[in-house]
Amino acid sequence: MKVSLATRVGDLAEEQIVAILRQAYPAGEHPTEVENDDAAVITVTPGLRLVTSSDMLIEHEDFVFPEFSAYDVGWKTAAVNLSDIGAMGAQPTGLVMALGLGHDATVADLIGYARGVRDAVNELAPQVSIWGGDLSHARLFTSQATSYGEVAEPVTRGGALLGDVVAYAGLLGFAAAGLRILMGERTDDPDLRGLERTGAIQHAVDAQLRPHPPVSLGARAAAYGAHSLIDVSDGLARDAARIAAASDVTLDFVSGALAGRCADLGWTRHTLGVDPWELVMAGGEDFGLLGTFAADAALPEGFEAVGTVIERGEHGVLLSGRPTEYLGFDHFRHS
Questions:
Q1: CB count, 10 Å around CB of 201?
Q2: Cα–Cα distance between 223 and 194 in angstroms, integer?
Q3: What domains can be seen in the chain, in order of their start residue?
Q4: Is the CB of residue 254 less than 8 Å from the CB of residue 320?
Q5: What is the pLDDT of residues 286-311, one digit of tens each?
Q6: How remote is the C-alpha of 203 from its chain's centroid?
Q7: Shortest CA distance to 244 belongs to which of 310, 172, 193, 175?
Q8: 297: which residues sit within 8 A by CB, 6+ positions away?
Q9: DSSP 3-state of 276
């Protein structure tokens, strides 16, 4: 049978599907020592510790077609998994990819997905290799990855100290704004009819479809002596609360330090009818890095001071000394 971009996955053998994915995946700098076997074999650098994490994206829960393309799903799967490794202060080395898709998916979908993974890796962590994975039929398009990295001493959520500077690197609020635009277009929201995808609006959509976590800044933050780190996937307030709980402290954000972030999202007030502060404090999915550093330490390039660590109080997160009403995303509470 002649295979074309329109060929259905259901008309291919599993070996053909694997070959299509493998051809498009990146090679990286840490290839497995054996191929086409039951498991990958990797040599870990002597003196370093292995770091691993896993995230999955499920159709209708984490993305929808056609607002997302298969390319976008591949990109985002790689990006969010690499982000977790960076958030430990580690250097990513490998990904194991698992994909579930229906019989009606096409070769074009396979190639798009694999190229999304490849391009995200090449841009965010070009040293990373794909070490294999799994493939299955599924009613819903499902993409999952397990990420690996190496670090001498991991930076955890539990190391924040009183008097630390709270610092942030990456976008804030744009991915959440992009999601609102995509869902508004999907439901034909009359307020979004005729909305042109230009400037900040396109930037927000891109931030949702193809996030750019500052992966390499995790290892740099560790080198600068970061006391704690977390990647902000569920909103600044919610993920800050995780550092606060693990470290038994309170993180007090300075509203003035975040005002510029809100100003960058000022257009959302009239375009989307949403308070920019909600996007900044609770938006999620920008996958920036939130960390704490000693008060007298220099911050790595890319980080900016946004608050301080104070003694644990009734609330783990404050905004200029007051509790914030913005709580962030909870996967199950919102399902």
A1: 19
A2: 48
A3: 9-151 (3.30.1330.10), 157-323 (3.90.650.10)
A4: yes
A5: 999 999 999 999 999 999 999 999 99
A6: 16
A7: 310
A8: 165, 224, 225
A9: helix
